[in-house]
Amino acid sequence: PSLVLVYSCLQQGGQLGGTFWEVISDEHGIDPTGSYHGDSELQLERINVYYNEAAGNKYVPRAILVDLEPGTMDSVRSGPFGQIFRPDNFVFGQSGAGNNWAKGHYTEGAELVDSVLDVVRKESESCDCLQGFQLTHSLGGGTGSGMGTLLISKIREEYPDRIMNTFSVMPSPKVSDTVVEPYNATLSVHQLVENTDETYCIDNEALYDICFRTLKLTTPTYGDLNHLVSATMSGVTTYGEWELWSVHHKLLLRESFHCSSVGSLPQETLHHELLQHKSIPQAMVPHNLLQGE
Fold first, then answer.
1. Residues 75, 50: contact at Cβ < 8 Å?
2. What separation in angstroms does the CA of 164 have from each of 98, 203, 236?
3. Under a CB-based contact definition with an 8 Å cutoff, are residues 204 and 167 in contact?
4. Side-chain half-sphere of 285: how many Cα atoms within 13 Å?
5. Mean pLDDT of 139-166
6. For a pLDDT cut of 90, what percent of the chain falls above it?
7. Which of 20-24, 85-89, 251-255, 287-291 has the highest mean pLDDT?
8. Which helix (H) or strand (E) holds 200?
9. φ, ψ for residue 45 (rounded to 5)?
10. pLDDT tier for residue 94 given thresholds of 50, 70 and 90
11. What is the secondary structure of 4-25 as a DSSP string?
12. Are 165 and 136 in contact (CB under 8 A)?
């Protein structure tokens, strides 16, 4: 079977990665200890796409969590599914990037990248047939933008024939007031265009508006934004649990096309014929897109 390696980078990216694994584990019937407690054999049919089966019928995510400071790692470890991850797959520094793209890409990030690549190789070697890599990161800070794009370029060099997908969170002044965020994002975009096969653009401002307008949350938190993105990522990555290469080529008809928009639309039932016909067009209207106009 084909397998996908997933890893996360930066504060919001790392927390988003943790939330994503909560959603995926729930779908596959995996509890916080890594044991299967589902109610359908279908939940185990493609579980080896995202999980390694360890001793004692335990399932361990194929996830590498990366940051230049330990705070995010501590947050993930103390979360509901913190014990499900392989301890050796937490790779972090001590200094942070200080919202500086250059620090993440050229100095602090460059010092840590070899350690990350060692773990990437180890996880890749455990795959029967590696489809590719999936990165969740934020483009607003220094680690997700600078080190995130450095990792992408290094992995692309080492695995040039594997798919590289990213879920890239764009900055917004509604969520953060850090003045250098637009510069970090701008410096990252050309790296994504050059080194990824597909980038799903997720806009913090659009997420904020959906939480505020559709979900009626008065003060949306990063946790609220991450849960919204994780639910959408789960839908998008469903194809990754089947034939990633096939769907990739159907979605990207032109070699120069890299970026995709994703939409989220609450639905009461999957079997209502009218909803089935309307759901895709409605998900693509501006106020349901996870990126700004």
1. no
2. 27, 20, 14
3. no
4. 7
5. 94
6. 39
7. 85-89
8. strand 198-203
9. -60, -45
10. very high
11. EEEEEESHHHHHHHHHHHHHHH
12. no
- Quick one: pLDDT band at residue 104, thresholds 50, 70, 90? very high
Residue the block writes with tokens 């602090």: 108
CA dist 140 and 115 (Å) reads 23
Tokens of 70: 């330990």
Asked whether residue 110 carries a pLDDT value surpassing 50, the answer given is yes
For residue 204, the 8-state DSSP code is H
Where would I find the H helices in 8-147? 11-28, 71-77, 101-106, 108-125, 142
Closest CA to 235 of 275, 266, 210, 212: 266
Distance CA 102, CA 60 (A): 34
**Amino acid 232: pLDDT:** 82
For 117, the token pair is: 């690549």
β-bridge partners, 30: 36
pTM of this structure:
0.82
| DSSP label at residue 100 | -
Give pLDDT, residue 71.
Answer: 86
Strands 58-61, 51-54: pairing is antiparallel
CATH superfamily of 2-288: Tubulin/FtsZ, GTPase domain (3.40.50.1440)
C-alpha span between 108 and 190 (Å, rounded): 21
Find the helix packing angle between 181-195 and 148-158, rounded to 10°: 10
> How confident is the model over 23-44, as a mean pLDDT?
91
